[in-house]
Amino acid sequence: MRPTIINIKNMTQAQTELTKIGVHPFGIQIMALKIIYRTIKFETIDPKTANVVKQEMLSRGGDVAVSAKVGLFEQTKTDIILMGTLAQYIRLIKKLRLQSYSECHTIAKEIQEVLFKDFDIETAPIW
Hints:
By secondary structure, the protein is of the alpha+beta class. It is built from five helices and three strands. It has a domain at 37-116: Ribosomal Protein S8, Chain: A, domain 1 (2-Layer Sandwich), CATH 3.30.1370. It has helices spanning 11-20, 25-35, 47-59, 86-96, 102-116; strands at 37-45, 63-65, 78-85. α1 (11-20) crosses α2 (25-35) and α4 (86-96) packs antiparallel against α5.
């Protein structure tokens, strides 16, 4: 037994690695979205929106880094760094579209455009 670190860069590689170990085809559809981890940075976000995005991503098992001053309401804008799997981002996008802050809608749209264009994911019916 020897561990190997693998860096999954795309859906094809994810599906190939899962197939190699004998994962059921339906399981591959589900797990391929969980096996790809991405980090996205947004600049100059309203702190209220940053807090909403952080709370929503945390509830999906991911995380969002924000300035320490966001919680103190000492800033008018902040950069944020989102961290999660494709599966978490899919669920985050759906939730952000329901939020009252229009900036959440913009973030959802931008995540989908910047992240999923490389993976050819329009919708994920299993989620």
